[in-house]
Design goal:
eight-stranded mixed β-barrel; 16 strands; five-stranded antiparallel beta sheet; hydrolase; alpha/beta; TIM Barrel; glycosidase; SH3 type barrels; elongated; Glyco_hydro_fam25_subgr; Glyco_hydro_25
């Protein structure tokens, strides 16, 4: 295993060149308006000292795509050389508890960079980022106590499910954030490189399937003239409305339901682009 220290603006600058440490993970940005003023200073110092590198973004909870774009804009020169990470915590996070926020963030960052982020989260809140397990490595925070001030690994079980294990385990968080990294130097470099460009997924042909059912709206939704989100609305239905449908279409992003009407058909979204049902199917 490798040793890693994560550093931020209030860390002593000496942490970036800490003896005996393999990797330095530097805080870069937060939200869409903060850049760590010491980010590049620490990054370049660690690089000159022969350390492997990482850089992370702290989520503010405003808009995940906007945050990912801000992160990429201010760190794109690090991409390919260092491993990116996203920090998901409750403090100063307006969307804490949202189980799709980080998924949307990592998707957008991957689209821009071709690299998947590590995801930092406390062990008790892994469920909030569980839908990222197939693409992203887990950086889990789990401490034996808040006064553990040693590189000696504590003898404790670390929750990681649905990940089979962690990529990084942060096990101290008092005087220094100490981490162990469950890979080799070559493995870390591979995480940093990702693909040469964001992967283009092959397009699947969407076809209607005859399927009748009832859909109870979990929120206000529009019925469209065509099965496209930009298509003009026929009507806006309030939460609790009941829609009977006679066919379904799994599009590239959304599940559409077809409603027979007096003059043709209307179309309503049953599941959003993250696979979340927008009501109850009966």
């Amino acid at each position: 295993m490798l040793k890693m220290v994560d550093v931020y603006s209030d860390s002593p600058r000496s942490y970036a060149t800490q003896s005996g440490v393999d990797i330095i993970m530097v805080k870069a940005t937060q939200g869409t308006g903060y850049i760590n003023p010491h980010c590049d200073t620490d990054y370049q110092a660690a690089k000159r000292a022969g350390k492997m590198l990482g850089f992370y973004h702290y989520c503010g909870g405003g808009n995940p795509e906007a945050e990912a774009k801000y992160f990429y804009k201010n760190t794109k020169n690090y991409v390919g050389e260092a491993v990116p990470a996203v920090d998901w915590e409750s403090n100063q996070n307006a969307s804490w508890g949202n189980t799709n926020y980080v998924r949307r963030f990592v998707d957008e960052f991957h689209k821009l960079s071709g690299v998947w982020c590590l995801i930092y989260v406390q062990a008790s809140s892994i469920s909030q980022v569980a839908n990222c397990a197939k693409d992203c490595g887990l950086w889990v925070a789990s401490y034996p106590s808040m006064d553990w001030k040693s590189w000696k690994l504590p003898n404790m079980n670390v929750k990681t499910s649905p990940w089979p294990t962690y990529t990084v385990w942060q096990f101290t968080g008092d005087n220094m954030d100490r981490n162990v990294v469950n890979t080799t130097k070559e493995g870390w470099k591979k995480l940093a490189k990702g693909s040469s460009k964001a992967e283009a997924k092959p397009k699947k042909k969407s076809t209607w399937k005859k399927k009748s059912g009832t859909f109870v709206l979990g929120q206000a939704l529009e019925i469209h003239k065509e099965p496209h989100i930009s298509s003009p609305a026929i009507a806006k239905l309030p939460k609790g409305s009941v829609v009977k449908y006679d066919a379904t279409l799994q599009g590239p992003k959304r599940l559409w339901l077809r409603q027979a009407r007096s003059k043709g058909y209307g179309y309503i979204v049953g599941k959003d682009k993250y696979g979340k049902a927008l009501g109850k199917f009966k």
